[in-house]
Amino acid sequence: MLKILVYTLISAFGWIVILFMDESEMFLYQNVPFLNLILVFYSLRIFIGISIIILPCKLLSYLNFGLLKKWTQRLLIPCLFFIPFIISPPDSWGFKHKKTSKEQKAHLGNLLIQNNNIHSENSLICFLSAHCTFCKLAGKKLGVIKNNLAHDDQLQIVIHNDSSEVQKFFKKVGIPEHFNYHYTSIDTLLNICGGTMPTMFLMKNNCIINEYGSRSLNDLEIINQLNKL
After folding, report:
1. Percentage of the chain with pLDDT > 90?
2. Best CA proximity match to 158, nearest among 111, 95, 210
3. Residue 30 and residue 83 share a domain
4. How confident is residue 93, by pLDDT bands cut at 50, 70 and 90?
5. Tell me, what CATH number does 146's domain have?
6. Which residue has the higher pLDDT, 216 or 52?
7. Whole domain around residue 70: which residue ranges?
């Protein structure tokens, strides 16, 4: 009976963590120094998956119907295990957002010509909105990544909101309120993002190395590329 109670508590904890998956992910990333974003993403979801199948596995062990038990284990347990990956999947399993379209590249190029204060030689250019939930998630990750870059200007933030909204956004995600950012219109932002916010471009010698979304930010790749001499 005690074992069932323990398994119930573990499974209940797993289901609760599912409700706060992004928050749990950020808590681990911000507070456990040796964890990177990919490791946090997969380890958290694997932990949740194991937690929620513990109780069903134990209860199924009491079944006497061999065939029913066998097929239930084969069908139910894998489905339960993959629930956290289905609810909160990465933008791509290889932690690359998508191939940047020609239209996006053209709009980005036009913006860089119009605003030569945006550094694109060796930087991460981030297009965000202060009212976007996924932008807030990305912003918290960027706040940690920024602390591991050699220079502050390697993180370039482009946003369409007014200054007061931007300051509130920076404060909420852990970026210094005085951090330098660039303004653009919402139309330009959406054109460069391809309609999907947030979008971040890893730039090397004015060329796009990779494009990320909020759940595909690869901190190891970003830090290694930008700090590489």
Report:
1. 44
2. 111
3. yes
4. low
5. 3.40.30.10
6. 52
7. 2-87
